[in-house]
Each structure stands twice: as C-alpha cells, then as structure tokens.
Design goal:
Blueprint: H1 2-18, H2 27-40, E1 46-51, H3 53-64, E2 69-75, H4 84-105, H5 111-123, E3 126-127, E4 133-134, H6 136-147, H7 153-167
Parallel strand pairs: 1-2
Antiparallel strand pairs: 3-4
C-alpha cells in the first residue's frame, strides 16, 4: 500500500544518505555530540531542557555523563523502561484525544474532515509553490506537531488548514 511504499522510500533514502555512517545516527551518539559541544563551549556542566524525545536524550546524557550533567528539566512522556511499541500506542491515544479536543475548539475541523484531507494526501499529495509535496506522513507530522501546544499550535493549525483548503497552499503545514 501507499504508506508502506512511502516508509520504504524513506528507509532507502536514509540508508543511501548515511552509508557506512548509519551506526553513528542514534540517541547514544547524539549524547556524545552534546558532551563534545559542552566541552568546546567551555561549560563545566550541561544544563538541559528536554521535551518529548528530548526527555530520552536528556536521560541518556545524564546516564552517560553524570559528572558533566547540571540542572535538567525532562518534560515528556518517554520512559526509557517502556518498550517503543507501548510508547507508540500511548502516544497515538494521546494524539487522538488532542485531535478530538482541537475539533471541539475549532468545529469547522471535524475528525471526518481532517480524515478526508489526510486521505486525499495519500491519493494525490498537493505540491507547494517551491515544488515540495505535502505527503501523508508530512501532513500527519504537521498536525501532530501542532497538537503539542494548544495555545500556540492549535491556532496555527487552524489557519494552516484554512489556507490549505481555501487557497490550495500547503506552505504553513511544512
């Protein structure tokens, strides 16, 4: 199906771009890079704010470099002791709830209306003025990103969806 094809294309693209360095693209490697940056900046202790995935990144940094860790705020729902599958299910349920709340606040965007827009992006992704296509995965990520912050993201999502539907313009969704 289309989503599997898109996922495989993304995987293949990442494999081709990373090549032999693929093993260096991980949370573990990123925490090492953060400590190198800390040292280059001449900072004795890394103070860190992490949200969502940043929670895991901060936790891993603290685990790898406890003597270099300063104050940390880990503001997210990623528990390093819970499986990725369980985390994904929990996150999907939370996004579903937030999307329903968004639809209540902005009644012009019912769940079925949003589902139709997403389905259309599967069938025929719209192309932006600069040639980028708003594919289904990008559309989902754009919506999910906005759902994280109801006070800021929801009004922006409302306007972006209006622009998308009324003016056939995808720019605000990237």
């Amino acid at each position: 199906n289309y989503i599997q094809k898109q996922n495989q294309e993304l995987i293949d693209s990442c494999l081709n771009a990373a090549g032999k360095n693929l093993g260096h693209y991980s949370t573990w490697e990123t925490t090492k890079d953060l400590d190198i940056l800390r040292a280059l900046l001449g900072v004795a202790k890394m103070n860190f704010y992490g949200a969502s995935y940043g929670t895991l990144l901060g936790f891993d940094y603290l685990t790898q470099f406890p003597l270099n860790s300063g104050r940390m705020i880990l503001d997210g729902a990623i528990d390093p002791n819970v499986s990725t599958i369980s985390q994904g299910i929990t996150q999907a349920k939370a996004f579903d709830l937030e999307l329903h709340q968004f639809s209540l606040k902005y009644p012009s965007w019912s769940i079925s209306q949003i589902a139709r827009l997403l389905k259309n992006s599967l069938i025929s992704p719209k192309t932006n003025y600069d040639g980028r296509k708003l594919t289904y995965p990008l559309f989902v990520i754009s919506i999910a990103d906005a759902l994280y912050t109801p006070n800021i993201g929801w009004p922006k999502l409302n306007e972006a969806l209006k622009t998308y539907v009324q003016k056939n313009n995808t720019a605000q969704l990237f």
